[in-house]
Structure formats: structure tokens, C-alpha cells
Amino acid sequence: MTTLDSFITRSRALPVPIATSQEIRDRGSTFVGTIFRCSTVEQARVCIQHLRNVIHGNKPASHEIAAWRCMAEDDGEQWAGERVLKVMKAEAVIDAVLVVSRWYGGTMLGPVRFTHIETCATEVCHAFKQQEELDEAVLMLSALDEELSSLRSQLNALNEGGAASSTPKPPTYPEWTVAELAKAKRLVKARENAIRSVKSLIEEKRQ
To answer: What's the pLDDT tens digit per position in 140-164?
Structure first.
């Protein structure tokens, strides 16, 4: 099935989910949570529409239960998204829109459906927070690499008795994944230790 979106010339990138939960299946119904980054209500609505019309375009969900939290605007929800919003607040997720999609299987599930909604929402909130941690660690690592390269250049110059040599190029890394969060944190700690050591050597040389 081809959606109308396929024929639209876009001036901006399509929304990309940060995380999608595992499916929960219960008596024919299926529940899946999806979370996107957004900083405005308008962006949140674009993400919801994209999920409904493009990602789920070939298999429309019976319900798209959505909530969003944006730093600069009021929280919001639609299609009975109060429980989704509650999870986002509990997990301290901000600047995001979260949608729990349900494909109804023909059997009324009763109150357990709310448990399924919250389980899907919690899973993607955890993934979102991990991605935030990874992004922060990678930014910190890049800054520390730059600082360490500059300090090593200064130390080399002091060892050689001349002006600071050209700054070595910081290392490059492949694209990080959430599975490598612990590795990124270890590298940050290692760079901090290396910077302290090089600063100490520079001070000794200057005395």
C-alpha cells in the first residue's frame, strides 16, 4: 500500500523513532510503544501523524494513545493518553512524544489493557533516557578528546623546548549505540584521568 506521504516533496527530515517497545499480545490485541524526540507541540503532532499514516500506514492501529512533554510548552495528551503522560512524568522524560499503539483483537481486555499501555510506555521511556545518557557521554568524550589533544601538543612542545606543535587530531569513533553506553562512560573517565596526568606533567615541566 502506498501512502500519500510517498508523493510529498519534503523540506525537512521525517521523524525517526528513538525507541520502539516489544509487542505485548493479549487475546488477539497487540500493544506497541514508540517514542520520538520533540521540542514543541507542533513537532509532537507531526510525529504522531507520521506514525499513524506512514509507519503504520499499511496496518493502521485501532488506537494511537499519545502524550507529549516539551520543556517550553505545556504537557499534553490525546486519545486517553493520561496513563502515558503519567509514565513520562514518573520517568522524568522531557522533550518527547510517546505513542502506545493498540491493534484491537475483538476481545475486551478490561483493566489489564492499562497495564499493557503503561508497560510499553515504561520500556520506551527507559530507552529514551539511555539514549540521552549516551548522547551526553559522546558530547563529553568529544570535548575531552579535543582538550587532551591540545594538552599533549603543549607537553610535546615543552619536551622539545619549542613552540606548541600542531594539535593532534582527536580520535574518530563509529556511530554509537545504546548498547555501548557503558563503554562511552568508561572512555570519559579514562580521558578525565589522562587529562589530569598530562596537566600534572605540564606543571612539572614549567617549574
So the answer is: 999 999 999 999 999 988 888 765 5
Tell me the pLDDT tens digit for each residue of 82-121: 999 999 999 999 999 999 999 999 999 999 999 999 999 9
**Regarding predicted confidence, which is higher, 34 or 165?**
34
pLDDT at residue 191 greater than cutoff 90: yes
Rounded to the nearest angstrom, the gap between the alpha carbon of residue 17 and the centroid of all alpha carbons in its chain is: 9
Three-state secondary structure string covering the chain? CCCHHHHCCCCCCCCCCCEECCCEEECCEEEEEEEEECCCHHHHHHHHHHHHHHHCCCCCCCEEEEEEECCCCCCEEECCCHHHHHHHHHCCCCCEEEEEEEECCCCCCCCHHHHHHHHHHHHHHHHHHHHHHHHHHHHHHHHHHHHHHHHHHHHHHHHHCCCCCCCCCCCCCCCCCHHHHHHHHHHHHHHHHHHHHHHHHHHHHHC
d(CA 102, CA 88): 18
Task: Return the higher-pLDDT residue of 76 and 62.
Answer: 62
